[in-house]
Amino acid sequence: MLEITGLRKQFPGGKVALDGVGFEVRPGELYGFVGANGAGKTTTMRIVMGVLLSDAGQVSWQGRPLDADTRKRIGYMPEERGLYQKMRVAEQIEYFGQLHGMSAAAARTATNDLLERLTLTERRNDAVEALSLGNQQRVQLAVALVHDPELLILDEPFSGLDPIAVEALSTVLQERARGGVPVLFSSHQLELVERLCDAVGIISAGRMVATGSVETLQAAAGRALKVVVRGAEPGWADGLPGELAVQGDRHVLVTSGGDDQEILRRAVKSGHVEHFGFERASLTEIFKEAVA
Ligand SMILES: Nc1ncnc2c1ncn2[C@@H]1O[C@H](COP(=O)(O)OP(=O)(O)OP(=O)(O)O)[C@@H](O)[C@H]1O
């Protein structure tokens, strides 16, 4: 298990980027790390990787502080992508595999498999600089995955990928997680995180404001009432709690408060009620609430 406790980081100049960040990523868990721009995700991951020193707090793996040797067995995709631009794709992935201690033959086999999985086989002999940004991103991912890491830490691995590549990467990460690897990744794609992750951590201004499974966070957020009324009279929802959206001749009211029976009576009186039901909060709604 990866355990992060009480991380604090103040940058020269005074900015407190992390103010007591802590969470755990268990074996076999896909953990989505989400937060607004500047919330502290990259800083946290850099500290885990030893690229940056924290002022306080601890990072431990399997109950012991993470050391340089263990970090070699981590697959890391940094925010600042680092590839050799002139080197060919397959050669580069193999090279990084060997840097992590793989034999040439093992690195070649793993590279071929990843090229296939990330649909890069046709580009295997191209120099990295000749690839589109999305394809460079796939190479960067292959580099993080090639040595069959014990733990994966990926800073925005899905950004810039097309939908096919998003699916391919999702499958690869799910397989690694099912094999027992804890996978920590940051993302701004909340629908993807909600669909993919076993657990989610929300960071805001250097502090964790929510962490747990999507189901737990949804249960804590409570359910929202959604009412759709066709042909409703203007002003029918005046004074009712929640947000009203008008889509053509449909009025959609979403609320997590108020007297549901009173809302139903008002809706029936004002028009044709097409939908009346309780819905679970989406991760986007939970996120907005948590960082508000
Ligand atoms: N080297 C640095 N010197 C000073 N401030 C920094 C430095 N690196 C990061 N910061 C600040 O620390 C805060 C956290 O930054 P960080 O990059 O961790 O955020 P993030 O959650 O990864 O954001 P994004 O989603 O935009 O990538 C920000 O206010 C940022 O400006």
From TrEMBL:
SMART domains registered for this protein in UniProt: AAA
Molecular function, one GO term: ATP hydrolysis activity
Predominant location: membrane
PROSITE patterns to which the protein is assigned, alphabetical: ABC_TRANSPORTER_1, ABC_TRANSPORTER_2
Keyword Nucleotide-binding: yes
Gene Ontology annotations for the cellular component aspect, listed alphabetically: plasma membrane
This protein's name: ABC-2 type transport system ATP-binding protein
Organism: Nonomuraea soli
